């Protein structure tokens, strides 16, 4: 989809006609990145993105007027959706009803969502229909200023080492904002009680070992100059930004899978910019490296029981 396009167009995907509008609207004012370019990115990244979206309850984060305008989250799939958009019903105890999340399992649905100004894609850690069983565990590393993503890199490496002692492989990605996330693929029957307890235990352990660098307490006043390990994301009712999702910052940055070598290099070189990737850079990386998060789709691992974990 070239940059100098008309403001409206109709495309056909898998026999479905999609009307696209406001393609010249600037979504990122600093660089002039438009809605049309956003759609183009999602179309081109779809081969590696869709496997990570398929059958996961998807929460939309919509920016109708770009990143400097008002945004809103949308859990319920829009009522006025095409009949071919599939949904995933998830019981909400708080609302006492089922919420029908969109299931972006195919390119047509992804393009339809992007046309609704769904800039960010936030997914559950579960795969339907096993909503109560997470297929992934995540550690969300959030730096409290003046700490940066470089400090997150150091904490991520400590996490990697701790997980490796439990024979668990882990995979890092940038949040696309200011932090890092470390994922542990499971793909085995586990409960959120188990994964959350495990994540909390490791976060607390790192806080004990590195109290000047790490905080696992939810209180924001304790985070200044430290990396907060958010273990609470491991919850049936929470979502995390999906790999390859755009983020709504000044630049069209992307939540990008990286190698452990890149994380280590960023830490050693004290270079936060080495872990910032914009849309075109991510497309180039996928072309040369493939999907670094591919193993998360099938690698089976089991967590040890938290009461069997000794000091590491």
From TrEMBL:
<dbReference type="GO" id="GO:0016874">
    <property type="term" value="F:ligase activity"/>
</dbReference>
<protein>
    <submittedName>
        <fullName>Putative DNA ligase-like protein/MT0965</fullName>
    </submittedName>
</protein>
<feature type="domain" description="DNA ligase D polymerase">
    <location>
        <begin position="34"/>
        <end position="293"/>
    </location>
</feature>
<dbReference type="Pfam" id="PF21686">
    <property type="entry name" value="LigD_Prim-Pol"/>
</dbReference>
<dbReference type="InterPro" id="IPR033649">
    <property type="entry name" value="MtLigD_Pol-like"/>
</dbReference>
<dbReference type="InterPro" id="IPR014145">
    <property type="entry name" value="LigD_pol_dom"/>
</dbReference>
<keyword id="KW-0436">Ligase</keyword>
<dbReference type="InterPro" id="IPR052171">
    <property type="entry name" value="NHEJ_LigD"/>
</dbReference>
